[in-house]
Amino acid sequence: MTIFGLTIEQLIFMILAILILATGVVVVTNRNLFHAALAMMASFFGVAGIYVLLEAGYLAAAQLLVYIGAISILVIFAIMMTRRLMQARETAFNSQWVMGLIAAVLAMGGISYVILDYWPALPDANVPLAHRTPVDDAVLQDSVVALGESFVSAEAYVLPFEVASILLLAALIGAILIAWPQQPEENA
To answer: What residues make up the domain containing 156?
Structure first.
């Protein structure tokens, strides 16, 4: 089924791309940090939608759980706990906008080069896939299961996985201690 000459997948991709770009602009130009954080959550949601279109369900779920469910909420709590920043009326643009523009143009040029060089313009195009490395279907099958098993296997990544969990626990305890309200000491 096509709408305006585009397939449903292409139309959904364009909608998600517009959502990501628009909310990204809101993130970097909005003066209110809370509204910028909400726009960042919407941008992360759009990226999760792109992962769904790419049939990468694990990455989409990780995007939703980690970035929207944890990182964005952490950023919003940090903004709300520092009320001083919520009331600051600073300019949305800084003095380094020229360097930022140059970096953005160079990044867009690199991305455009990769897309135009490695990806055929149309699905029906007879472009040789010389740049692509074929991936065997057996590699893609059960990849999430293999990743999970490697996290708990003594021969693989169990030690780095446990060290990361202890580090995150220490950061959580430190954040609770910093945010804990201090009571003035009374002289007895």
So the answer is: 145-177
Distances (CA, A) of 142 to 65, 97, 148, 149: 21, 46, 10, 11
C-alpha dist (Å) from residue 94 to 32, 36, 39, 98, 151: 15, 16, 20, 10, 43
| Predicted confidence (pLDDT) at residue 135 exceeds the cutoff of 70 | no
The answer to whether 27 and 43 have CB atoms below 8 angstroms apart is yes
**pLDDT tens readout for residues 70-80:** 888 888 887 77
Residue 173 placed within a domain: yes
Smallest CA-to-CA distance from 152 within 164, 143, 162 is with 162
Measured distance CA(27)–CA(20) in Å, rounded: 10
Q: What is the pLDDT of residues 101-117, one digit of tens each?
A: 899 999 999 988 877 77
135 falls within a domain: no
Residues 81, 10, single domain; the answer is: yes
